[in-house]
Design goal:
The protein is mainly α and 59 residues long. It has four helices and no strands. The longest helix has 18 residues.
Length: 59
């Protein structure tokens, strides 16, 4: 259960950093990852979030 909480916290932080427009390379370093593919697992967004952000960008 503890590992699940930690992973949820890391995912939430990663999404928050991404939404704050922090460079993905910096997010990788902040999370202590050595592989971009590992970081990308934490940055999975829902379809609704992607659609909302695209509409804000006038796509």
């Amino acid at each position: 259960m503890k590992n699940r909480f930690i992973n949820t916290l890391r995912h939430t932080a990663a999404i928050s950093y991404l939404k704050s427009r922090i460079n993905i390379g910096n997010i990788l370093r902040m999370l202590g990852h050595t592989s971009l593919s590992t970081t990308q697992k934490y940055l999975q967004l829902t379809d609704e979030e992607v659609a909302r952000d695209l509409s804000r960008a006038n796509w």
